[in-house]
Specification:
The chain has 391 residues and is α/β, with parallel strands linked by helices. The chain has 2 domains: 35-246, Aspartate Aminotransferase, domain 2; 249-387, Aspartate Aminotransferase, domain 1 (Alpha-Beta Complex), CATH 3.90.1150. The chain has 14 helices and 11 strands. The structure holds pyridoxal-5'-phosphate. Pyridoxal-5'-phosphate is lined by residues 80-82, 106, 109, 148, 152, 175, 177, 197, 199, 209, 211.
Length: 391
């Protein structure tokens, strides 16, 4: 017998035990025993995978976890949060249709919506705090309405039930990246589907790029098909990391919410801060709604407007960042560490200066993504950074 060629080596049998943690199926494709099985796989008569761009055990497992957490029939996974959103736009919209979005969405989501105009899709926006505005802008060709649970960075809270009622038969799609199923389950309040940038809290360790969606089996199958055709598919390693991250989601969200409320309160008493945006504070416009919808908190994001007293806002933010390198600038959120971001030059840099001003994004606005550090340590660090602005 000829020797086994090296390209066929490397297989082991599982034996009588199984791994305590599901393995990463790092494979492009799956060997199919014969053409009958191939036909059964395509017909959905047996469970299995054929090609990783379409599905893979780790991708399926994560999709199921997301569906269970969101309380929906099915889930789906994508290369990124934008992959999930892109898939929804490409699946549900055709030339001549209309899509309605909240005005205050993540900057790239607004860019995505406006790109659709190239394909003869009409796009309009409404104030998420006004369900009446939503209803007034519906048209016969409106295919869906898109909102975020809690808007970035000023944290206006969407009243999902009121928006569902205002949208009538038009499906409401909710980006719940900031809040996670630990704090709210939009589909249980009537939303047709929910999406997340899993690069954020679902994974929670700042080392993944992934998106997920949850909703009906029919919609998730259509999204999967689009993701496969347009190459927006997730990959096995990111799914594995996110599945691991999910195991600590309840603990992380609990601690984050507690620390964030404490820090928001502390920051609102500091003389170098002109205004703190957090729904736990009574003067926040969404305070009452947030207390009803989010009894466990609204997550780990706070925005603060520094007290400029006529000084340049961007320069002040720069001074603050240089004074506290332990609180790094990082253009993301939901890392395990506390990080800072500057909306005017990150999430909202694609808006004109006028549009930014209208959205309340000033040059002195700093966004904080609170991490898992003890509250006392964060208070000390913010204190030293903010005190350096008082001189
Ligand atoms: C609310 C929200 N939705 C979607 C996205 C896009 O996600 P991703 O960066 O995973 O593509 C982001 C990214 O910051 C986000 O904050």
């Amino acid at each position: 017998m000829a020797e086994e060629p090296v390209v066929r080596m490397g297989e082991t049998q599982a034996g009588v035990t199984r791994p305590s943690v599901a393995p990463i199926y790092q494979t492009t494709a799956f060997d199919v025993p014969d053409l009958d099985v191939l036909q059964q796989l395509y017909a959905g008569q047996v469970t299995g995978d054929i090609y990783t761009r379409d599905s893979n055990p780790g991708m399926r497992a994560l999709a199921q976890s997301i569906a269970a957490l969101e309380g929906t029939e099915a889930g789906a996974v994508f290369a990124s949060g934008m992959g999930a959103l892109g898939s929804i736009f490409l699946t549900l919209l055709s030339a001549g249709d209309h899509v309605l979005t909240a005005q205050s969405l993540y900057g790239k989501t607004l860019q995505l919506a406006s790109r659709m105009q190239r394909f003869d899709v009409a796009v309009s926006a409404f104030d998420v705090c006004s369900p009446q505005q939503l209803t007034a802008q519906l048209r016969p060709g409106t295919r869906f309405v898109l909102v975020e649970t809690v808007a970035n960075p000023l944290l206006e809270v969407a009243d999902i039930e009121a928006l569902v009622a205002a949208a009538g038969s038009v499906p409401l799609i909710v980006d719940s990246t900031f809040t996670t199923p630990e704090l709210i389950r939009p589909c249980s309040l009537g939303a047709a589907a929910v999406i997340h940038s899993a690069s954020k809290y679902l994974n929670g360790h700042g080392d993944v790029m992934l998106g997920v969606a949850a909703g009906s089996q029919q919609l998730m199958s259509r999204l999967n098909e689009t993701a496969s055709i347009f190459g927006q598919n997730a990959n096995p390693f990111e799914c594995w990391l996110t599945q691991r991250g999910l195991r600590t989601l309840p603990l992380r969200m609990q601690q984050l919410c507690r620390t964030t409320c404490g820090l928001a309160q502390y920051l609102s008493s500091h003389p170098a801060v002109q205004r703190v945006y957090h729904p736990s504070l009574p003067r926040h416009p969404s305070h009452r709604l947030a207390s009803r919808l989010y009894p466990r908190g609204t997550g780990g994001i706070i925005a603060i407007e520094l007290q400029t007293n006529g000084r340049d806002g961007m320069e002040l933010v720069n001074r603050f960042m240089r004074a506290v390198p332990q609180l790094p600038f990082s253009p993301t959120l939901a890392d395990a560490r506390t990080t800072l971001s500057y909306p005017a030059l990150t999430s909202h840099r694609f808006l004109s200066a006028e549009a930014r001003a209208e959205a309340g994004i000033s040059d002195a606005l700093l966004r904080i993504s609170v991490g898992l550090e003890p509250l006392e340590l964060l208070q000390q660090e913010f204190d030293s950074g903010l005190n350096s602005l008082l001189t």
